[in-house]
Write a structure and sequence with these properties.
The protein is built from twelve helices and seven strands. It has helices at about 5-20, 45-50, 55-60, 70-80, 85-95, 110-120, 140-145, 160-165, 175-190, 195-210, 210-220, 265-280; strands spanning about 125-130, 135, 225-235, 240-250, 255-260, 285-290, 295. It has a seven-stranded antiparallel sheet with strand order 3-4-5-1-2-6-7. α4 runs antiparallel to α5, α9 (about 175-190) packs across α11 and α10 crosses α11. The longest helix is centred in the middle third of the chain and has 18 residues, at about 175-190. The N and C termini lie far apart (about 45 Å).
Length: about 325
């Protein structure tokens, strides 16, 4: 099911969603005594702030105007107080570059990248590709989530696992924040590859199967996949709060290294050390597909299986 709207419709949907999230008071607009039927800015208020006519804004939101100037888009971004990543998204949906899917996304990582992952034994780490596909991971990354090697490559998708896998979903304690950010990352990805059929299929599948995904996808929130925090109730390590940092891998299109860390001296740092020890005593080996090898490198038989979600944390 393709739920990616045409270019004009995508721009209009995004402008309406952004307009609904702006508090008029934050933009210095006084109350005029009229009741607001919907949250956020009225069309005439946004038009005034951006220096465009109301009629032109109506046509933009209805997808009836093409070739919008950069000056107008920049003015709308300022009026809506968009972040840098949101501003970049606005520019992309206003004039999407079609045919981007002709560049096949990489489904493997370089040998040196896997060595980098393995060289971080005390930190969960993985490499994500386009559509949040899990391309490579280290032992602690598998211990934190699940044994990705037991899944067919087509099912190694962090977004699908987060929403649909009964072993992964119950772990997240800050569920609303996690899924809001995940969906915002995917929407940012979708603006770069509007013709990607696999991405459209993923959006369609999750929209049908999960109401939370459907809600946040309709909210049109956008966020570059850079950093954040996740709080998990891990069945082995117990409660654990981790920060994550995402870095682009140079010369590896659409590949991002994601590394999780805990606050030094915290209970989460202690829990992470316990989980690392547990993973290391399970004779864990990493997993990925290596670019300069013809076959998939799978973890050894000792890779820890996904922990039982009903289990009691053992380290306390």
């Amino acid at each position: 099911m393709d739920r990616t709207p045409p270019a004009g419709a995508a721009l209009g949907e995004y402008l309406r969603a952004c307009r609904s999230r702006v508090d008029p008071a934050d933009r210095g607009l006084p109350e005029d005594g009229r009741r607001r039927r919907v949250p956020g800015l009225r069309r005439e208020e946004l038009a005034q702030l951006a220096g465009v006519s109301v009629d032109y804004l109506v046509r933009l939101e209805q997808g009836r105007t093409r070739n919008v100037s950069r000056a107008v888009l920049d003015a709308l971004a300022r009026a809506l107080n968009l972040r840098e990543d949101e501003h970049a998204y606005l520019l992309r949906v206003a004039e999407p570059v079609r045919g981007q899917t002709s560049r096949t996304p990489a489904t493997s990582v370089r040998r040196q990248t896997q060595q980098l992952l393995d060289g971080l034994p005390g930190l969960p780490a993985m490499v994500l590709g386009r559509r949040m596909e899990v391309l490579a991971w280290n032992a602690l990354g598998a211990a934190l989530y699940l044994d990705f090697a037991t899944l067919p490559p087509a099912d190694r998708n962090l977004l699908r696992l987060t929403f649909l896998d009964p072993r992964v979903r119950p772990m997240f304690q800050n569920w609303d924040q996690v899924v809001r950010d995940c969906v915002a990352h995917l929407r940012e990805d979708a603006s770069r590859y509007p013709d990607d059929p696999k991405l459209a299929a993923l959006v369609g599948e999750l929209s049908v199967k999960d109401p939370d995904f459907r809600h946040w996808w309709a909210a049109h929130r956008v966020r570059a996949q850079e950093f954040g925090q996740k709080t998990l109730l891990h069945p082995i390590a117990g409660p654990i709060t981790l920060d994550y940092q995402t870095m682009d891998l140079r010369d590896a299109a659409d590949q991002k290294l994601v590394v999780y860390t805990a606050e030094p001296g915290s209970r989460s740092a202690e829990a992470l050390r316990f989980l690392a020890n547990w993973a290391s005593t399970s004779t864990t080996s990493p997993g990925s597909t290596i670019t300069d090898q013809p076959t998939t490198h799978s973890p050894g038989a000792g890779t820890p299986a996904a922990p039982d979600p009903s289990a009691t944390p053992h380290w306390r």
